[in-house]
Specification:
Radius of gyration: 22 Å
Strand content: 35-45%
Distance between the termini: 70 Å
Largest sheet: 4 strands, antiparallel
Strand order of the largest sheet: 11-12-7-13
Order of helices and strands: EEEEEEHEEEEEEHE
Mean pLDDT: 92
Number of strands: 13
Shape: elongated
Length: 183
Amino acid sequence: MSRIGKLPVVLPSGVDVRVEDGHVTVKGPKGELRQSILRDVVDVRLDDGKVVVARKGDAKAHRSMHGLTRTLIANMVEGVSKGFRKSLEISGVGYRVAKSGERLNLSLGFSHPVPFEPPKGVALSVEGQNKIHVDGIDKQLVGQVAADIRQLRKPEPYKGKGIRYEGERVRKKLGKAGKAGKK
């Protein structure tokens, strides 16, 4: 039995869950999310303010989908009630970010500014000139948008310039060592 899969998902007040036609729909104060589930593998039901996920067999596919389905539903419940946030830091001389409308304009050491347009369902905010916050209700989408922004200029290992997640540590390399004692 999956240790994660057997835990019920407790629904906070203001969150409504519906299970119908192989889809789970979660509605809350921040929005609505919909996820398809494999009905022949797992059984999702509501028990007085809790969502319970049970697997229908002991096959490998059933065991692997049990915990995954429960975690996806828990992420949806947390997203529509609290939301998710990923923060990015920009470091480097001349590296900065500015917001114009919904779009970000990033100066990342290239000869041109790099525009970034967020997808629907994600809000971008800028703090100062070197911090970006990605907010949304879909955990997968928030993480993907943050990864896409980081991909524009990954932190390099020699000086540490680039875009990194907040709290991410970049291991620095020593660089070129000259030959000592050469005549």
